[in-house]
Amino acid sequence: MAAPHLDDPIAPDRLQETVLEFPDNRLLIDLCGEFDRNLADIESRVAVQILRRGNQLAVIGEPAARAEAADVLTALYQRLEAGRPVETGDIDRELRMGGPEDDGARDGDQLDMFPTGQVEIKTRKKLVEPRTEAQKAYVRALFENEMAFGIGPAGTGKTYLAVAVGVNMFINGHVDKIILSRPAVEAGEKLGYLPGDMKDKVDPYMQPLYDALNDFLPGKQLAKLIEDKKIEIAPLAFMRGRTLARAFVVLDEAQNATSMQMKMFLTRLGEGSRMVITGDRTQVDLPRGVQSGLKDAERLLNRIPNIAFNYFTARDVVRHPLVAAIIEAYDKDAESA
Hints:
Layout (H helix, E strand, L loop, with lengths): L4 E3 L8 E6 L3 H8 L4 H10 L2 E5 L2 E6 L1 H19 L6 H10 L23 E2 L4 E2 L4 H12 L2 E5 L6 H14 L5 E6 L15 H19 L2 H9 L3 E5 L11 E5 L7 H8 L7 E6 L13 H9 L5 E5 L9 H16 L1
Parallel strand pairs: 7-11, 7-12, 8-9, 8-10, 10-11
Antiparallel strand pairs: 1-2, 2-4, 3-4, 5-6
Helix pairs in contact: 1-3, 3-4, 5-6, 6-7, 9-10
């Protein structure tokens, strides 16, 4: 794999110029992006200026910033050489994580998921790659443990990555079905007042799960799998009395499950199944005085083998940058109260 040539002359001015030369001009066009939007993204995030000169990119700025930008550009170019596209999320991941590295992949890793040391999830429609260190640890935990918890604020990819792993395990034959569930907790509007039958009433609660599935499976295939009950999306109350064997089961918004509901759900685990429980402790919609089952589960289960607890913070938010700032503002206000 051809790597770009790096020329970093020494100059007395700290705003020196680092020149990167890229052998394939077609790949360089993809690296820069439409109207150089990829370069503009890197410039704004790293505080450098990037100038294009033929098949070279000149990076101007402080030494540390120049080095970081050069590393990101090199990693993204190598990604293009490997036949993979460069999108906004890939730039974000490289800036957060410093590029792919060998983080201890082993021959015995379940599903042979990490043959190159990179953590990635293959689905029918796209390849999903964690964008923060916490996300990477979370994905590993999902593959390596029979039960895993993902706890943290909205926008950190807890549910999205869990569904992606579920789809991967399903299409590779490691489970026979996917079951996605949420507590149908009424947040301001009574279910009984909503129009339609029970499915119409609960589907709005389940929509984020449908959205995630649509990202990973073709529409017709997804519809067929739901029709054949290979994929089920149902409120938590519908789990009572079931034993879930060879299934990948996700409980989303688990902070809104009561202690009894959480115990009921966790004890549905059957032979050959995996369970993922995701939630945000700061967004409990239960009535005042009702204990969150997620909090109880943390307290009671954190020392049991094969149960992993993974935590996210505002730094792991991968939505709009303002989301992270909003979460941090609310967290600081709660700490000072």
